[in-house]
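Exercise 7b. Backbone tokens:
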């Protein structure tokens, strides 16, 4: 058995380039964009390049004492490039951004395949022209458009590359307003989108078509034809959606239940068309072309064929960002491995990341980008060590064991970061991945067969086999999902705790493989810090009692947290409501699993030894809330800690306070701006604290310390 390859610094030039570029990108994200600093960065870059060329032209390269100077200038230049590129498209820097112009209408085109959810169509819109006071101005920038086609007589379809005329009514993307909520503003900023708009279908006008990239347009049209073929030969809706997603990356028809099953079993990567799928295509062709390894010229031909195959598959999937990322990464690794440069695999991975970030530095904040590279690094780092430490001689058992080590390596690389982002960990990821690998490969090969054969009886037979296999796979994953402790939820890690976990994993491997004492000491130190921080967090949560009034726009959601018990009072239908899932549950699931959240519908009655709810009055231990919309009346005087006013009560605040005494007035998003202004003015005159929840962060009332946020 060949020992794991030794890493040499001289073999890793792109690692240094990548680190320099990452440093510049990180500095750019750490600072707010400023035009003066951006201009200064350009000036510094010019000076550095001139200095680099000056040293290069006035010295002999064989004089080694100048290598370090040239290297410093090169790395510094890449750092400045990363800094500049992060800010380049920001509205504060880009003088042609459409938000800098006062306009009546915008002209642009659709730059991605529209996503349809019910009666709504959503897509990014590239703005190219704006109707200003003096005529038409050439502008730039993107915004996210949502089109409502409900009750519309407009039947025009919207496709990639369609040029549209829309009215100007956009607004900035809102930041997250609730604890633990997805930062949608940051997510869209990573796609160079800072504004959004919601339009009725009749408000837009299609001017022309074919304004997008012709290659991408062809790829998307080809994928759509393939999706139609799947729908013709796969009758079951779930099987059709899995086939379209797993093989073609088309997720529009995938149900939430299926997504949850794959997520809870640690196999969600199967549905995210990325590295695994490219590897499956590469592996089959590589095995079929084994005879081309005999000569250097044949190996070059094999590389060309394999590269054509994986890039052809990227075309088939519509050039989605995840598949492009995986294709570029595997292309570099493939070129290195086929020409005997396995010892430079880290350099190949770094090269792919470097060129991707050079193309778009904002890939660095994309969760898929981060998880993909960490999973690959985990495999590259751990797989050779595990294979050398636990050799297997049996040819039948060896593939299973080797795939096990690959799964462990991928999970070790991506698992801690996935837990940081998604607050859960799939316990049975290893058996689930072992179970899914053969069906997933078979599903892909059957799917390719169905796409290649002409319509007819053979296609029908393949479609039936494909449908049965997918349904069997879904049933198996659903069974694993139902096992006890299939997924551990409510995992909330800080960035430094996540970093400690990665350090612990690396040091544990070093201590076991290299027998180094410092590795053991580092493992003990990291473990001690993690245990102490976890114990401290547990003690704090056990003593925590708080009321959270969530910002759910015009709706109502109040979370009542007491140690390990949580109640949710809301006018929404249930905890399965989309708004609750994305805006409310991230906070509440940090305390208890979702099945332990007691849901209380608004206007219902509820009571136990800690909570009493009746007629809009909520008594939680020694704190009382009143949710009031201006219609109810109360006999006598009612004392409350928080008075929540909703739905534009017409009574003046002075009239309300004649029967209701409150310590805090809270105004939510169901009130008009004019009503909020009136009530804020009246509250100021009466010297009553007021908190406006509309367009503001959720309000947290801590019972134990009488501290409120």
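Sequence design result:
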């Amino acid at each position: 058995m060949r020992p794991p390859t030794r890493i040499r610094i001289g073999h890793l030039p792109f690692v240094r380039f990548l680190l320099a570029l990452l440093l510049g990108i990180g500095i750019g994200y750490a600072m707010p964009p400023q035009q003066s600093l951006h201009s200064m960065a350009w000036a510094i870059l010019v000076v550095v390049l001139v200095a680099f060329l000056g040293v290069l032209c006035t010295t002999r390269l064989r004089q080694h004492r100048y290598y370090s100077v040239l290297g410093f200038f090169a790395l510094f230049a890449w750092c400045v490039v990363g800094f500049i590129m992060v800010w380049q498209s920001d509205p504060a820097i880009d003088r042609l951004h459409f938000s800098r112009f006062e306009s009546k209408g915008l002209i642009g085109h659709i730059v991605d395949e529209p996503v349809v959810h019910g009666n709504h169509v959503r897509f990014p819109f590239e703005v190219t022209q704006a109707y200003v006071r003096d005529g038409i101005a050439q502008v730039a920038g993107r915004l996210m458009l949502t089109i409502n086609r409900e009750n519309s007589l407009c039947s025009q379809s919207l496709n990639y590359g369609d040029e549209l005329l829309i009215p100007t009514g956009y607004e900035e993307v809102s930041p997250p307003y609730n604890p633990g909520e997805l930062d949608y503003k940051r997510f869209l900023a990573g796609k160079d989108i800072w504004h959004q708009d919601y339009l009725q279908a009749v408000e837009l006008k299609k001017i022309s078509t074919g304004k997008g990239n012709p290659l991408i347009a062809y790829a998307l049209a080809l994928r759509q034809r393939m999706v139609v073929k799947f729908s013709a030969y796969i009758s079951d809706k779930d099987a059709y959606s899995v086939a379209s997603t797993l093989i073609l990356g088309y997720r529009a028809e995938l149900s939430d239940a299926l997504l949850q099953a794959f997520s809870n079993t640690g196999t969600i990567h199967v549905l995210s068309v990325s590295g695994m799928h490219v590897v499956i295509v590469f592996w089959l062709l590589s095995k079929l072309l084994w005879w081309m390894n005999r000569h250097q010229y044949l190996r070059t031909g094999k590389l060309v064929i394999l590269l054509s195959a994986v890039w052809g598959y990227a075309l088939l999937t519509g050039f989605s960002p995840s598949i492009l990322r995986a294709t570029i990464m595997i292309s570099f690794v493939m070129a290195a491995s086929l020409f005997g440069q396995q010892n430079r695999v880290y350099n190949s991975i770094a090269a792919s990341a470097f060129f991707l970030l050079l193309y778009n530095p904002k890939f660095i904040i994309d969760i898929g980008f981060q998880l993909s590279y960490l999973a690959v690094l985990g495999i590259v780092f751990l797989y050779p060590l595990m294979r050398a430490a636990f050799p297997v001689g049996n040819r039948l058992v060896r593939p299973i064991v080797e795939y096990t080590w690959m799964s462990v390596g991928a999970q070790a690389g991506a698992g801690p970061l996935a837990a940081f982002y998604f607050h859960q960990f799939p316990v049975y990821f290893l058996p689930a991945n072992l179970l899914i690998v053969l069906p997933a490969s078979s599903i892909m090969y059957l799917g390719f067969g169905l796409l290649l054969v002409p319509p007819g009886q053979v296609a029908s037979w393949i479609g039936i086999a494909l449908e049965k296999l997918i349904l069997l796979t879904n049933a198996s994953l659903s069974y694993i999902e139902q096992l006890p402790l299939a997924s551990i939820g409510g995992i909330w890690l800080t960035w430094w705790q996540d970093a400690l976990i990665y350090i612990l994993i690396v040091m544990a491997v070093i201590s076991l493989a290299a027998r180094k004492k410092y590795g053991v000491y580092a493992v003990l130190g990291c473990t001690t810090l993690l245990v102490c921080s976890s114990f401290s967090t547990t003690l704090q949560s056990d003593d925590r009692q708080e009321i959270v009034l969530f910002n759910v726009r015009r709706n109502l959601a109040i979370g009542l947290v007491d140690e390990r018990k949580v109640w949710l009072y809301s006018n929404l239908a249930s905890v399965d409501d989309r708004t609750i899932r994305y805006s409310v549950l991230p906070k509440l699931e940090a305390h208890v699993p979702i099945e332990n959240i007691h849901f209380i519908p608004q206007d219902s009655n509820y009571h136990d030894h800690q909570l009493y709810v009746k007629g809009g009055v909520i008594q939680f231990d020694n704190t009382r809330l009143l949710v009031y919309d201006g219609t109810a009346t109360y006999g006598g005087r009612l004392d409350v800690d928080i008075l929540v006013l909703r739905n534009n009560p017409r009574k003046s605040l002075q009239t309300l306070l004649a029967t209701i005494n409150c310590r805090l007035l809270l105004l939510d998003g169901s009130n008009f701006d004019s009503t909020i202004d009136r009530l804020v003015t009246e509250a100021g005159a009466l010297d009553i604290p007021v908190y406006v929840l509309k367009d503001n962060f959720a309000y947290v009332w801590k019972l134990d310390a009488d501290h409120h946020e």
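Instructor comment: The first strand starts at residue 105 and ends at 110. Residues 215-266+428-492 form one domain.
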